[in-house]
Specification:
The chain has helices at residues 18-51, 64-75, 83-87, 137-146, 152-167, 181-184, 203-206, 208-218; strands at residues 91-93, 100-111, 117-127, 131-133, 149-150, 171-180, 195-202. By secondary structure, the protein is α+β, with helices and mostly antiparallel strands. The chain has two domains: 9-75, GTP cyclohydrolase I, N-terminal domain (GTP Cyclohydrolase I, Chain A, domain 1), CATH 1.10.286.10; 89-218, GTP Cyclohydrolase I, domain 2, CATH 3.30.1130.10. Strands 5-2-3-6-7 form a five-stranded mixed beta sheet, sandwiched between helices. It has a two-stranded antiparallel sheet with strand order 1-4. Strand 2 (100-111) and strand 3 form a beta hairpin.
Length: 226
């Protein structure tokens, strides 16, 4: 496997492999594009302050447009990496064929309707079918799908479908709990309301006992346990 020691100045060294220089050039171009987009977001954030009747040059707001641009860049990072890249080659053969559950994975996302945050915990369980995925990859998969403009319902389904696709388990179940600021700050203004969504595939969909087992384990303890 070919690799380049540095994505920046190293590739300009005389004699450095041409493939490495090409890879570096692509990485630098992506950085330029990302920086251009960040500057554009900053300009739009400044314009937003003006429309709201504020002075973006006053002391408290002088750095706000840049901060807001960086915030939205970070909260939308899921668009710039695929879940396949996150998993890479961290799939391993296994003879274990019982439930694996990763519970209480924290997530933060943006509601696509109002661009307000929603956040909470996601629980991911599956029964292997000859393969398991690296433990640390599951929270990172959650992060990829949550760091986008989302609906909780769609995010839950996307995580379940991706796991079904990447490791073909006997069954997969994803349950998400979310507090939505668009519900607590506006509209109904119900501060204690939580939304719960689930997506079950394969054995968990067909077999009531398997489904009950994972739901019972999810409900036990933890910061989101009831």
């Amino acid at each position: 496997m070919r690799w380049c020691a540095s994505p920046t100045s190293w590739a300009s060294v005389r004699g450095w492999p041409s493939w490495c220089r090409s890879a570096t050039s692509r990485a630098e171009k992506r950085e330029l594009v990302n920086e251009d987009k960040l500057k554009r977001l900053e300009e739009l954030s400044r314009e937003l302050l003006l429309i709201l009747g504020e002075d973006p040059e006053r002391e408290g707001l002088r750095k706000t447009p840049r901060r807001l641009a960086e915030l939205y860049r970070d909260l939308s990072s899921g668009y710039r990496i695929s879940p396949e890249e996150v998993v890479a080659d961290a799939i391993f053969p296994v003879e274990y064929d019982h439930l694996i559950l990763v519970r209480d994975i924290e997530y933060h996302s943006l509601c696509e309707h109002h661009l307000l945050p929603f956040f909470g915990h996601i629980h991911v369980g599956y029964i292997p079918n000859g393969k398991v995925i690296g433990l640390s990859k599951i929270p990172r998969i959650v992060e990829v799908f949550s760091k986008r403009l989302q609906l909780q319902e769609r995010m839950t389904e996307e995580i379940a479908r991706f796991l079904q696709h990447i490791i073909h388990p006997q069954g997969v179940a994803v349950v998400a709990e979310g507090l939505h600021l668009c519900l607590t700050m506006r509209g109904a203004k119900k501060e204690s309301a939580r939304m719960v969504t689930s997506s079950v595939k394969g054995l968990f969909r067909r077999d009531a006992r398997s489904r009950a087992e994972i739901m019972n384990l999810i409900s036990m303890g933890g910061p989101s346990g009831r």
